[in-house]
Structures are given as C-alpha cells and as structure tokens.
# Entry
Amino acid sequence: MIEKAQGACRVLQVSDTHLCATPSAPTAEAPVDQRWQAAQARLMDWAGSADAIVHTGDVSDDGSAAACQRVAEGLRALNLPGQILPGNHDEPAALLKTFAPGDPLSLARVLDLGAWQVIGLDSRKPGAVSGHLCEAELSALDAALADAGDAWILLAVHHPPVSVNCAWLDAIGLNNGQALLDRLEANPRIAGVISGHVHHAFETMYAGRPVLTAPAMSVQFLAGSDEFAIASGPPAFRWLDLCPDGTIQTGIEEID
Ligand SMILES: [Fe+2]
# Structure
C-alpha cells in the first residue's frame, strides 16, 4: 500500500461491481461475486488509511435489490462513509432501499470531507446505455458548487465526460459531457472528475485538471479498442489522495 500523502483525504473509488440477484457460480464466464469477495481483503487493507469510499455506479448488473445488498455488505465492512452513484444498469429504487438517506453510505449529492467535497451526479438516461445530465441535475450541481465555499471539489459521475479513445465506449458516454467540462473550466475549485462505466483506467487532463476513470470490480474492457473487447485484467480499484493544495495523487490497485 502507498503511504497517504501528507494532510490528504484518501478516497477509494470502487466501480462497476455488476452483481446479479443470483450470486455467480465460480465457473461462470464472469464470476463477479467471487471477484467482489476477492477484493474484500485488499479493500480492508486500504480502509485503515482511507477517509471515504465512492462507488461510481453499476452496483448491480440487473438492477436488483439483492445485488445491491451484497455489494453493500462488502462496502459496510470497510466502516467508511461514502457515496454511491447510479449507473445505467442500476435501478434507483433498489439503490435507495439499500443505501438509505442519512446512512453513512448513501446517494447523497455531497460527500463532505472537510477541505474537500465529492459532488455526485446522476447521469442515467432512462432506457439508454449512454448517459445524460438533465437540466435538474445540472442545476443541482450549480447549487452544490455555490454552497461549497472554499472546499476543493471532486466531481463523480458514472459516465465519463471525455473521450476515452475507444469508439464503442465514446458512443455510449456522457452525451452532454461538455456541460460538465464547461463548469470545470469556469470553476478553479473543481480539482478533478472521476467516472466508471468504461471498465478500465483512463487518465487525461481538461483545463489543467485530471479526468479519471476506474477499472471495474467485475470484468475489464480493453483500453484503446474501437470495438467491444474484454481484457484479461484482474478486478481493481482506484485510490485518490486529495491533497490540501487541491492536487490529486492517484493510482490503481489490482487484486490478483
Ligand atoms: Fe459497467
């Protein structure tokens, strides 16, 4: 494990667990329950130095409450506060039933870490795989930014607002990502953006701030591929050290 940067808030970004109502068999093509269970010990190792956890969506594969419940059991064992974002595979009612308002792990808009706030966005577009930030969501973002005072901001949204250099994934990304990027450019307190959805780690910069995606806990997609392709990588998560000066140190932890 990497030593935490001085004075930083450490966030563990878990993404795309994709569990189903019926647990996967060890012989399944995608043994997602086994991968999620394998991640537990490593997440526990990191939890001692971490301040919060953010799940960037696709908690479930089938939208079921049973799948959300099994993901929640693993997350609650870490004993950290956190924010859960809905992905295109998730059903809001099932997520809300599992991660109730006021619980340490919830769908609350703002995860307050003192010098930093994580502001979460719902990019689900009903019936679509791609994402969209509706007017109400953008208004809520603007209100949260106005309320954030001097805090540094990490934006979290399931669908990445930038191209990840994979044509098939870019076609199902955030279809109005520029609305988010415009806010990033206009507001120097927004220190970065994290997303899931693309099942691999991707890093770029926009207006001098990092825009990052996380690998999946389930199955990885091949980086740089213009067509759908599975990669052989293990489940993995991203850690982020949110530093007092507004910079972010980050890396990927793979679970062999
Ligand atoms: Fe996913």
